[in-house]
Design a protein that fits this description.
The chain has two domains: 44-104, Antifreeze-like/N-acetylneuraminic acid synthase C-terminal domain (Type Iii Antifreeze Protein Isoform Hplc 12, Alpha-Beta Complex), CATH 3.90.1210.10; 118-205. With 209 residues, the chain is of the alpha+beta class. It is built from four helices and seven strands, in the order αββαβαβββαβ.
Amino acid sequence: MSQGRNVRKAEWHRLRLRRLLAAVLVGAAVVVGLSAMRPAAPATVQVLVAARDLPAGAEITSDDLTRVQWPTLAVPTDRLSTRQVVGRRALGPIRSGAPVTATRLIERRTLPATDGDVVVSMPLSDPSLTQVLRVGDQVDVLAPTGAAPARSAQIVGMTTPSSDSAWKGPSGGSILLAVNGREAAAIAQAQASGVGGAGSLMVALAVRR
């Protein structure tokens, strides 16, 4: 009797142990399954954002910027690097934490890149020239005397006055030229002396081969 009772007790312990082990295995399987179903963390990249609120027109410095992780799918397509942002001005208010993108900044002006260059305005007497000349073209400035106050001057801007404009000079518009100091002085002297005065100086498109 005693021996039979011991056998049944041992079997009962083994059954209890098997049930406990089965419960542990089921629990582990549930944890593994839930982990597999959990979506993976989205991929991120660093994005340049405003470190503080920036008012419209503010010139941005490196202290105004910081980098944060953004989900790759949400990254602005016109994001910029620190080098592309520093020194530019905010087009409108930029809130702290907002990405600093190209559309939030005032566009850079096209100005001469050579140290010492200045920009001078040249009136055009022939309006057809505005249909031929383009920003970036190089032109020679010629006076009726045959002198050339400037050669290979780059056009960095153009204006075409409308018929109702208050412009009182030649009606052909004007161009902005990047010239050195000597050339600027020669153009100013020619205009002031009346020899090749305003509207009389001729602009010739420089062809370089």
